[in-house]
Amino acid sequence: MGEAAQIVLQHHEQVDGAGYPNHLTGDKICDGAKIIAIADTFDARSHERAHHTLLKRPLVRTMNEINNFSGTQFDPYWVEIFNQVVGESKA
Predict the structure, then answer these.
(1) If you average pLDDT over every residue of the chain, what do you get?
(2) Least confident of 29-33, 58-62, 68-72
(3) Whole-number percent of the chain with pLDDT over 90
């Protein structure tokens, strides 16, 4: 399987094994999928979507939600990198 296909397949996995489709944990999930999972959640929470509640969340609330799931849904290492990138973009 190619790297891009693996990222797409695994981006709904969670580091605690609660994700899908294969309930992978931690290091069994490729880094690309871990990064896309955070980016996808950020996008979903911070932008309006026609099929959702149409209520976008402010940046601070979105970041809090992502950080609250560090270690369960998201890899703590990549959450910290994401926080640094968002912090730099606000400066």
Answers:
(1) 90
(2) 58-62
(3) 70
Segment 36-51, tens digit of pLDDT = 999 999 988 887 765 5
Q: What is the DSSP string of 44-90?
A: HHHS--TTTTS-PPPHHHHHHHHHHTBTTTB-HHHHHHHHHHHHHHH
User: Phi and psi of 16, rounded to 5°?
Assistant: -90, 0
CA 74 to each of CA 42, 52, 60, 63, 82: distance values in angstroms, whole numbers, following the listed order: 12, 22, 17, 12, 11
Tokens representing residue 46 in the block: 């911070």
pLDDT at 11: 97
Residue showing tokens 């309006």: 48
Plot region of 78 (φ>0 → left; ψ -120 to 50 → alpha; else → beta): alpha
Give residue 29's identity as a one-letter amino acid code.
I
